[in-house]
Automatic annotation (TrEMBL):
Superkingdom, natural source: Bacteria
Name of a matching Pfam family: Acetyltransf_1
Listed name of the protein: Predicted acetyltransferase
Gene3D superfamilies attached to this UniProt entry: 3.40.630.30
The organism of origin for this protein: Longilinea arvoryzae
Length: 286
């Protein structure tokens, strides 16, 4: 028997689903990290999140789904996840009137859900990005680059705000307003999550976020075009990853765009190993 369960809080969702998600913590780090952040920083929630599982008795989670509007639906599905389970999820979302801008999850699962959502709603499901998830447990030091690694400071905010907008355009194919980029960057600086490689001036940046019990995610990696090809990003990410391991995390993860072979190669050279593929779909109404 399948039992759909919707949760009123991230804490309730984690109490129910965390043990299952931790069985593959690195692959489920996105969902875990978002829910831990929702639990720990409820004052930052902009809209009520969707937190949901489908269980097969007794207490076996076969699907977990979360969404923090206006962002995409994120899926975890057991290997036994059959079409009826995705159909149940789609039906529940439609019945409750949730607007779904897109879906992100393991490639095969997100594809099957996107097909069903398009059939049920009449929207167009379009692949936005194919991503690869990587895990690092030991850093391979890159060739040294001039400069030093340091935390970002408020004095860096104007420059890093522009870099944040460029990062979203280059890596995520999304546009941020100046106000959105400034707020996001300022928060990362205030939380001590944003770092730069400084060669007499900032020449590259990288950030950490979404900590889970044993891991943390690296993201926000950007080097302006005129500074590329000099090893700044490799050194920045390598030192940041080692810093996280030294802080006690067992592993770091990151996502790359499969269409960018350069970044995929760079991260593997410093110790990141591919562990899963995700596909992001956007849903568009005619």
């Amino acid at each position: 028997m399948l039992s759909p369960i919707q949760f009123a809080s991230a804490d309730a969702f984690l109490q129910h689903a965390q043990t299952t998600l931790l069985q593959d913590e690195a692959a489920n780090g996105l969902m875990l990290g978002i829910c831990i952040r929702l639990r720990d920083y409820p004052e930052r929630i902009l809209a009520a999140p969707f937190l949901f599982t489908i269980d097969r008795e007794p207490h076996q989670i076969v699907l977990a789904a979360i969404m923090t509007p206006p962002h995409n639906l994120i899926l975890h599905c057991a290997e036994t996840c059959d079409p009826s389970i995705l159909e149940m999820l789609a039906g529940h979302l439609i019945a409750q009137g949730w607007a779904i801008p897109g879906v992100l999850g393991p490639a095969a699962i997100s594809e099957r859900f996107a097909e069903r959502w398009a059939q049920r709603t009449g929207c167009q499901a379009r692949v936005h990005q194919r991503q690869r998830g990587f895990e690092l447990r030991q850093v391979i030091p890159p060739l040294p680059a001039p400069g030093r690694f340091r935390p970002a400071e408020l004095s860096d905010l104007p420059l890093l705000t522009e870099w944040a907008r460029a990062f979203y355009q280059d890596a995520l194919h999304e546009d941020l307003t100046l106000e959105q980029a400034r707020a996001m960057t300022a928060l990362k600086i205030d939380d001590r999550q944003l770092y730069v490689w400084d060669a007499n001036e900032p020449v590259s940046m990288a950030a950490v976020g979404r900590p889970t019990p044993h891991g943390i995610s690296v993201s926000f990696v950007y080097t302006p075009p005129r500074q590329r090809g000099r090893g700044y990003a490799s050194n920045c990410v390598a030192v940041l990853s080692q810093h996280m391991l030294d802080e006690g995390y067992q592993f770091c993860t990151l996502f790359t765009d499969l269409a960018n072979p350069v970044s995929n190669a760079i991260y593997q050279h410093i110790g990141y190993r591919p562990i899963f593929d995700y596909t992001e779909y956007h849903f568009e109404n005619d």
